[in-house]
Amino acid sequence: MELRQLEYFVAVVEERSFTRAAERERVAQPAVSAQIRRLERQVGQTLLIRSSRDVRLTQAGIALLPHARAALAAVRSARRAVDEVAGLIRGAVAIGTVTLHPVDIAGLIADFHTQYPAVEITLATDNSDALLAKLADGRLDLAIVSLGLDEHPPGLDVHTVTDEAVVAAVAADHPLAGRATLPVAELSGHPLISLPVGTGLRTRLDNACAEAGITANVAFEASSPRELADLGAHGLGVAILPESMARNRSGLHAIDLDPALRGRLVWAWRRDMSGPAARLLRDRATAGRDGSG
What fold, for 76-160+266-287? Predict the structure, then answer.
């Protein structure tokens, strides 16, 4: 069993495609197929079920996957340990972020790259639930995610970037525009504009509605809070937004919710983070801010 075979196997599983896995590994697709066939012969089991539209794991593949990831992680750790002894910082760091945040990611990466040019940095965008899952299984080293005030994902440490209220926002001519406060229970009587399921803001909204004994009537969804603000300003419903965005957007009237909702954006990373490059980037990202870990 070779490391290359395990790398290709994990790539096919994560990409759900032999073609995309080959592009990711920068090899020809037949090479990936050949190595997977050799791996299957060595373990004596079919690992992947191929179809015209998808690639799925067999039970044997499901059993092998965590061990393959652990073996690859162990090799990366060994290489990092050797580099540390040699006084070198190299390797790869994977960062993920939600769609809207106040962090200058481009500047952070550029400054880090200037000092550590041998470190490869990748950046991806997703919703908070997906980012947390990728942190947990090692596909990401660092991520900016949205969490509730009392939310502490197991196995992760966090550093707060922002902590602010979540409010309702309506157009200036909306019937609620004269209100300063709105009970969460009254949201059921209005079409809502929210981020999709899986985002931190949507989780705050759904949890608050459940506690109030109602179901959120989400009429419009958008992937960015800026788009939510635009929809709200056009009178399409009650937008659920971070307070700073609601109060700083012309054409919107912000309304405090009762009980109050709050959310925070945080840097998050695995508590067992071991890579020196990832640790250095984490320390640089969180330097100079008050946060909690």
Answer: D-Maltodextrin-Binding Protein; domain 2 (3.40.190)
Tens-place pLDDT, residues 259-290: 999 989 999 999 988 778 898 899 999 985 44
Burial category of 15 from C-beta neighbours within 10 Å (exposed 0-12, middle 13-18, buried 19 and up): middle
Give CA–CA dist 76/288, Å, rounded.
30
Q: Are strands 192-194 and 156-171 parallel, antiparallel or unpaired?
A: unpaired
Q: DSSP secondary-structure letter at 267?
A: E
Question: Is-contact 257 166, C-beta < 8 A?
Answer: yes
Neighbours of 39 (CB within 10 A): 21
**Which architecture does CATH list for 3-72?**
Orthogonal Bundle (1.10)
Per domain, the residue ranges of the chain are: 3-72, 76-160+266-287, 162-264
Sign, CA torsion 238/243/244/247: positive
Give the residue from 121, 101, 71 showing the smallest Cα distance to 161.
101
> What is the third-level CATH fold of 162-264?
D-Maltodextrin-Binding Protein; domain 2 (3.40.190)
* Residues 6 or more apart whose Cβ sits within 8 Å of residue 242: 162, 164, 165, 166, 167, 201, 225, 263
| Chain segment 7-51, per-residue pLDDT in tens | 999 999 998 889 888 988 888 989 999 999 999 999 898 999 888
For the four alpha carbons of 97, 99, 105 and 110, in that order, the dihedral sign comes to: positive
Helix axes 128-136, 200-212, angle to 10 degrees: 110
Q: Do 76-160+266-287 and 162-264 have matching folds?
A: yes
pTM, two decimals, is 0.64
Q: Are 67 and 262 in contact (CB under 8 A)?
A: no
